[in-house]
Design a protein that fits this description.
Layout: E1 11-14, H1 30-35, H2 37-43, E2 47-50, H3 78-90, E3 94-99, H4 109-116, E4 128-129, E5 150-153, E6 158-161, H5 176-192, E7 196-199, H6 202-205, H7 220-233, E8 238-241, H8 247-250, E9 260-262, H9 264-276, H10 280-288, E10 297-300, E11 308-309, H11 315-325, E12 332-333, E13 337-338, H12 342-345, H13 350-362, E14 366-370, H14 422-426, H15 432-444, E15 453-456, E16 465-472, E17 475-482, E18 488-490, H16 496-499, E19 503-507, E20 521-523, E21 528-535
Parallel strand pairs: 1-2, 1-14, 2-3, 3-7, 7-8, 8-9, 9-10, 10-14
Antiparallel strand pairs: 4-6, 5-6, 11-13, 12-13, 15-16, 16-17, 17-21, 18-20, 19-21
Helix pairs in contact: 5-7, 9-10, 9-11, 13-15
Bound molecules: 1-deoxynojirimycin.
1-deoxynojirimycin binds near residues 63, 100, 201, 242 and 306.
Length: about 525
């Protein structure tokens, strides 16, 4: 058993409902996904992260569950899900699922029972206040879509707490029964064969809610308890967490608690670096990230299913990213983010898109890719809020992009699907998809990338160029990425002694072979070169 499998994984996330419809109802389903596993295997991904799979009224795209022990009937049955796990495993692909236990849907039977009577066995599973909480206008996650964090329930004759929308009552994590239930949910899905969980909203789960005190302390003990529990049930089970917190707080989440955290800080700095054509923010991020305990790992990403979150940048930095990537108001969301996919943010410039992903995949951490990124899929800004970036997968130039045979789809296709789809890109060796396949396979052959150390190579290089190096016991690799539009040359001769016989393993196109002295390494505008310096075995 490889307990640290997540350190060398390539994660791909998708919503079942927008990936592939097999029964013609316009909504993607599990059988459809099973039919596309060979595509994912060929792409080279090793772990599939599924967005919420449970029954849900879908007021927050599934992040509002009504039954944690079942599958949304639109997707299929538990039997179909077991088939999916089997078929994925046959192709060497692990599956992790979203674990959304900070809150439930207000239609969940637990909440319905809790509100019906103070004597309900579920009353204390939620967070209530008899009085109107004075801080209820604070701590909103979705400003503009959410007015407060406490809502009065007339049936319950009390206020209930909800970090997110008012239809998502928070579970009371301080209640031991709730903790036991969460462990049981994890055990259930592990028993079925999932490899772990992407835990939603972790800082809020462990918030000890005290009405009137928005800064109430965090209960990290619960994370240790949960880690132990899942590890007893399945030794190599993964807990990958969404915890967008201040850098100083990050280390509390690791070490006997969570295995992996999404690197939100790096994400915002990558956006800033791309917007300014300047690698400094990434260099800062590499320098500032706390050292991780043994076994802990970052998950890197450029885009996810939510808005690009720029809240941790300064006002000036945020303004630069907005100007470059979200110039019009309808591209922006919650005063802090951008509701766009990466390719259109980068002007659909193939060189720049490849540069961005080459950089993401070469940095420390496990790369996470979202469906459609491998094609450079676009968004539909006419859709509401975050739905703009949740359009169906584009498989072919056939009707409905090969996603479904229905007349009406769950959501419209993003513009341009007739030419931007898997079939067209598969037949084109210069396409983004073909490049992604090569890049991911190169990465998987490079053991030092991702799991090894990752450091900035601090030598004078042209402005716009980032030089960094991955090193572990198997060898070392040098990466040069030019975030600027103009060609240049970098002098990396200080690394020549270490290199001996440098070998280029991946680059954008058209360079003369690399010379052993590394004295003049040419880079195109938005060019990149991955150069193996040393291989020990
Ligand atoms: C974080 C998820 O990424 C987001 O999509 C969701 O709306 C909230 N958590 C609430 O569950």
């Amino acid at each position: 058993m490889n307990e640290r499998w997540y350190s060398k994984a390539v994660v791909y996330c998708l919503d079942i409902d927008t990936f592939q419809d097999s029964n013609g109802d316009g909504v993607g389903d599990i059988r459809g996904l099973i039919g596309r596993l060979d595509y994912l295997a060929r792409l080279g991904i090793t772990c599939l992260w599924l967005h919420p799979i449970h029954p849900s009224p879908n007021r927050d795209d599934g992040y509002d569950a009504t039954d944690f022990y079942n599958i949304d009937p639109r997707f299929g049955t538990l039997g179909d899900f077991a088939e999916l796990l089997h078929e994925a495993r046959n192709r060497g692909i692990r599956v992790i699922i979203d674990l959304v236990v900070n809150h439930v849907s207000n239609e969940h039977p637990w909440f319905q029972s809790a509100r019906s009577s103070p004597d309900s066995p579920y009353r204390d599973w939620f967070v209530w206040s008899e009085e109107a909480p004075s801080d209820r206008k604070q701590g909103m996650v979705f400003p503009g879509e959410q007015d407060e964090t406490w809502t009065y329930d007339r049936t319950a004759k009390a206020w209930f707490y909800h970090r997110f929308y008012d239809f998502q009552p928070d579970l009371n994590i301080t209640n031991p029964e709730v903790r036991e239930e969460i462990k049981k949910i994890c055990a259930f899905w592990l028993q079925l064969g999932v490899s772990g969980f992407r835990m939603d909203a972790v800082p809020f789960i462990i918030e000890r809610t005290e009405p009137g005190n928005p800064d109430s302390p965090k209960d990290f003990a619960f994370l240790s308890e949960l880690r132990q529990h899942v590890q007893w049930r399945q030794g190599d089970a993964l807990l990958l967490a969404e915890a967008n917190v201040e850098p100083a707080e990050l280390t509390d989440y690791f070490g006997g608690r969570l295995h992996m955290l999404f690197d939100f800080m790096l994400n915002a700095r990558l956006m800033l670096a791309l917007a300014r054509h300047d690698p400094e923010p990434v260099i800062d991020a590499l320098r500032d990230t706390p050292a991780l305990p043994d076994g802990a790992q970052w998950a890197t990403f450029l885009r996810n299913h939510d808005e690009v979150d720029l809240s941790r940048l300064t006002a000036d930095q945020r303004a630069d990213v907005f100007e470059a990537f979200g110039p019009s108001p309808d591209m922006r969301l919650y005063d802090r983010g951008i509701r766009r996919r990466l390719a259109p943010m980068l002007g659909n410039d193939l060189r720049r898109i490849q540069l961005a992903y080459a950089l993401q995949f070469s940095l420390r951490g496990t790369p996470v890719l979202r469906y459609g990124e491998e094609l450079g899929m676009g968004e539909d800004l006419s859709l509401e809020g975050r739905m703009a970036i949740r359009t169906p997968m584009q498989w072919s130039p056939a009707r409905n992009a090969g996603f479904s045979s229905a007349d009406t789809l769950i959501r419209p296709l993003a513009e341009g699907w007739e030419t931007l789809n898997v079939t067209v890109q598969r037949n084109d060796r210069q396409s983004l998809l073909s490049w992604f396949e090569r890049m991911i396979h190169t990465l998987r052959e490079a053991p030092e990338v991702g799991a090894g150390s990752c450091e900035h190579v601090d030598v004078p290089v042209p402005r716009g160029v980032l030089a960094h190096r991955a090193v572990d016991s198997t060898g070392s690799m040098l990466f040069l990425h030019n975030l600027a539009d103009s060609a240049c040359e970098a002098d990396m001769s200080s690394l020549a002694a270490e290199a001996g016989y440098p070998v280029e393993v991946l680059s954008d196109d058209g360079y003369d072979p690399i010379t052993d002295d590394l004295a003049t390494v040419a880079l195109n505008g938005y060019g990149f070169r991955w150069i193996r310096l040393r291989r020990n075995s």
